[in-house]
Design brief:
Layout (H helix, E strand, L loop, with lengths): L3 H14 L12 E2 L5 E2 L3 E3 L15 H12 L4 E3 L3 E2 L11 E2 L6 H11 L5 E7 L14 E2 L17 E2 L2 H21 L3 E6 L4 H6 L14 H4 L1 H14 L5 E6 L10 H14 L3 E5 L13 H8 L4 H8 L6 E4 L5 H10 L4 E4 L1 H5 L3 H6 L17 H6 L1 H17 L10 H12 L14
Parallel strand pairs: 3-4, 3-14, 4-7, 5-6, 5-7, 7-10, 8-9, 10-11, 11-12, 12-13, 13-14
Antiparallel strand pairs: 1-2
Helix pairs in contact: 2-3, 2-15, 3-4, 4-7, 15-16
Protein name: NADH oxidase
Enzyme class: oxidoreductase
GO molecular function, one term: NADPH dehydrogenase activity
């Protein structure tokens, strides 16, 4: 079946499959620990929009993209990576916010993302060693030692962080959060997952320090807790602060589930408003293929077993992200209490108004993501992670230009788009988590 017909089928099914039953639990509001109310349970998880230029500034494209998503009905929109240091980027096209030079455009972005009662939260991050050499030849990390595995050649050897630099990065997280609030964003999410800097501190494999930031889990988590406390002080007690945290890194000897639960409990005691559960790193992505809908059906929703473990351990709201494709699965997860927010990302790059379709129109179909391919097997194998990410970035770019997503676009065109927009840096491996 031509993948473009998936979008047509979605439109047709709404009219034919509209429900008249009671309101879906996805439409129920949620009050966060800080007292802020979210209008529904749709949590648009972070995707790198790749829309910033070389100046790392937000653009009019960000404004149009987030206005479209806000009109689509989600309760919370989380931005893609916003880096706290413009010399330390994780991917091509990252926005960086370290001072107020782009405050006017940030205000436009925040205003667009909060239309129709939506929340728009800025995800704030530092890549650590996970910064491709094509955009950063001088990465920083808790300890020396490069990225392991087949992608190591794409990353420079990092410099071990001194105490002075650690304090500076903590200050940067707080400054970026303060600016986000000033600009009109209604929350922030601290990125502590996916092999970026905070996750590197948490990992006993990446963090080999012998000071108060290394060794025991309590010491390895100190950097995250220091960042969280500084951010909380910067934005106040009534402003949402979420944390994205790995359930586990997927690497033997790495940050694991028991450690993750321990960290979550400490974050809850510190006053976190939501924990966004995720997993994986560069060295061990959660998924390595681009199988599309067939793969989704085999796998189901990510991290459900871990979420069931956490259910009895925490009272803070959890967002479970990855693999939600239809209302039935979303409602089941909410009814079981394994999540309080439905994290969803890539389907919104294809169906930007999916929340409205499910909540307002009661659509009961399933979004089927296409298998992204160039049609050339060696090329697919060589660029599988970049291929899929670039394809979805192209779709977001189309929305940002006022165009419709186009599922007929092939993988080769996506790679060419990435090359034109970002040059050779676009072909370096990027953090590849499982489909969202």
């Amino acid at each position: 079946m031509d993948v473009w017909k998936v979008g047509i089928m979605i439109n047709d099914t709404i009219a034919a499959g509209a429900k008249t039953t009671a309101m879906t639990p996805i439409a129920e509001p949620l009050t966060l620990p800080c007292g802020v109310r979210v209008k529904n349970r749709f949590y648009k998880s972070a995707m790198n929009e790749a829309l910033a230029g070389r100046d790392c500034a937000p653009t009019e494209e960000h404004v149009r993209l987030y206005r479209t998503w806000a009109r689509g009905g989600a309760g919370v929109l989380v931005t893609g990576n916003v880096m706290v240091d413009r010399t330390q980027l994780g991917e091509p096209g990252n926005v960086a916010v370290e001072d107020e030079r782009d405050l006017n455009m940030l205000r436009r972005w925040a205003a667009a993302g909060t239309e129709h009662g939506a929340h728009c939260w800025m995800q704030i991050n530092h890549p650590g060693r996970q910064s491709p050499i094509t955009i950063n030849p001088h990465p920083l990390a808790p300890s020396t030692g490069g990225v392991d595995g087949e992608y190591g050649r794409f990353f420079a050897e990092p410099t071990e962080l001194t105490h002075e630099r650690i304090r500076d990065i903590i200050r940067r997280f707080a400054a970026t959060a303060r600016i986000a609030k000033k600009a009109g964003f209604t929350g922030v999410e601290i990125h502590a997952a996916h092999g970026y800097l905070i996750n590197q501190f948490l990992s006993p494999l990446d963090n080999r320090r012998a000071d108060e930031y290394g060794g025991s889990l309590e010491n390895r988590a100190r950097f995250l807790f220091d960042v969280f406390d500084a951010v909380r002080e910067a934005v106040g007690s009534d402003f949402p602060v979420a944390v994205k945290l790995n359930a586990q890194d997927g690497v033997p000897g790495g940050f694991g589930e028991e450690e993750s639960i321990w960290v979550m409990k400490r974050l809850e005691a510190r006053g976190v408003d939501l924990i966004d559960v995720s997993g994986g790193t560069y060295a061990k992505p959660v998924i390595r293929t681009n199988g599309g809908a067939a793969e989704d059906r085999r796998r189901g929703v990510y991290f459900t077993d871990f979420a069931r473990r956490v259910k009895g351990e925490l009272t803070v709201p959890v967002a479970l992200t990855g693999g939600f494709r239809n209302a039935a699965d979303m409602e089941r997860a909410l009814d079981e209490g394994i999540t309080q927010m439905i994290g969803i990302a890539r389907p919104l790059a294809l169906v930007p108004d999916l929340p409205n379709r499910i909540i307002r129109d009661r659509w009961d179909g399933s979004v089927e993501l296409p298998r992204v391919t160039t049609g050339i097997k060696p090329l697919d194998k060589a660029f599988v992670g970049i291929l899929v990410i670039s394809w979805f970035e192209l779709q977001m770019n189309r929305i940002a230009r006022g165009e419709r997503p186009d599922l007929r676009i092939g993988g080769l065109r996506a790679l060419m788009f990435a090359m034109r927009r970002h040059g050779p840096a676009s072909l370096a491996p990027r953090r590849r988590k499982g489909r969202q």
